[in-house]
Write a structure and sequence with these properties.
Blueprint: H1 10-35, H2 38-46, H3 48-67, E1 69-74, E2 79-81, E3 90-95, E4 98-103, E5 109-115, E6 120-121, E7 135-138, E8 142-147, H4 149-158, H5 160-180
Antiparallel strand pairs: 1-8, 2-7, 3-6, 3-8, 4-5, 4-7
């Protein structure tokens, strides 16, 4: 049975098709230059349209991913997320400082970590029950990019560097969650 391409994780599918188009044209170009066969060079010239399709698909994915990220501003002392909130968004700090507070069994809150520009929080909400394990509070005026889980997963699946950046952090958070339970 035929299924529509745009169902499910369509940005990742479009990005894959884009990478295949560009990779095919690049491979054809290299092969035609190495072998110097006129028919391959002619094929490479005609394949420029496929290259254009790959670029357009990449632009579509980039534009939709950009709209899926919201820039938010918080003043010093503002709470960005509360511990136990069911939301599943991931936050990346553009500017300012944030502290993550964890509520202890006796009701007190302790500072678990401090984050600055480039820091991120909320990714553990993708694990387990989807609740935040701590409260994030702005220490200074803060600008954050808020991403939906689908955007985060699309970036992880399509950008190896992005995935590696979060891999170590996710593993550390998993160990921390396992230690609590």
């Amino acid at each position: 049975m035929w299924r529509p391409v745009l169902g499910g994780d369509w940005p990742a599918k479009l990005l894959t098709v884009s990478q295949i188009c560009v990779g095919f044209v690049a491979l054809l170009g290299v092969w035609s230059m190495i072998t110097r066969r006129p028919i391959l060079m002619l094929g490479f010239a005609f394949a420029q349209g496929i290259l254009l399709v790959g670029i357009v698909l990449f632009v579509v994915v980039a534009a939709t991913a950009q709209r899926a990220m919201n820039r938010e501003h918080y003043d010093a002392g503002d709470v960005i997320i509360h511990q136990g909130d069911p939301r599943r968004d991931i936050y990346v700090i553009s500017s300012g400082n944030v502290e993550i507070l964890v509520r202890q069994p006796d009701g007190t809150e302790t500072v678990n970590q401090r984050l600055g520009p480039g820091g991120h929080f909320g990714e553990t909400a993708l694990l387990g029950r989807g609740a935040y394990f701590g409260t994030a509070r702005a220490v200074t005026a803060v600008e954050v990019l808020r991403m939906a889980p689908q955007t985060f997963l699309t970036l992880c699946s399509s950008l190896p560097g992005f995935k590696e950046q979060f891999k170590d952090v996710m593993e550390a958070h998993l160990r921390e969650l396992e230690a609590r339970n």
